[in-house]
Amino acid sequence: MSSSTPMSSSPRVPSSARTPEDLHAIIEEAFNRADLEAFLDAHDEQATVVVPPDGRSARGREEIRAAVAPLFALAPDMAMVVVKKLEADGLALTHGRWTLAVTEDGHRSELFGLGTMVSRRSQDGTWRIVLDDPLAGI
């Protein structure tokens, strides 16, 4: 089965978000493939992310990597839908509903929320996450 293939053997592809909504899909896919590098590539170098379930903040890709790696190790299964977008002058504010099911010690549990994401359009036209608070609506 392809899900047992290690993700480290796949080539890294930079974020190709052409719209702010694409970032939500990229994050969803990164969790579902347990692809931490794709998750990080969707973020600006100095992004700040609030990390569930405890709500601590991580800034910069290395801090974010350390903070979210435990979630990626729990066989995540994510679903996300964008419910609202506000965009102006190369910045976007999006809200998305999400669920994240994980398996820990043989038990499956589910996290959920309404998150808020701020993203910025790069000079090449792609979008990167600058601020991400998946717990904003809780």
Helical proportion, percent range: 10-25%
**CATH C-level name:** Alpha Beta
> What name does CATH use for the topology?
Nuclear Transport Factor 2, Chain: A
Task: Provide the domain count.
Answer: 1
What does this structure look like?
By secondary structure, the protein is of the alpha+beta class. The protein has a single domain (17-133), classed as Nuclear Transport Factor 2, Chain: A. It has three helices and six strands. The protein has helices at 20-32, 36-41, 61-72; strands spanning 43-51, 56-59, 77-88, 91-104, 107-121, 127-133. It has a six-stranded mixed sheet. A hairpin with a 5-residue loop joins β5 and β6. The model is unreliable at 1-13 (pLDDT under 50).
How do the strands and helices of this protein lay out in sequence?
Layout: H1 20-32, H2 36-41, E1 43-51, E2 56-59, H3 61-72, E3 77-88, E4 91-104, E5 107-121, E6 127-133
Parallel strand pairs: 1-6
Antiparallel strand pairs: 1-2, 3-4, 4-5, 5-6
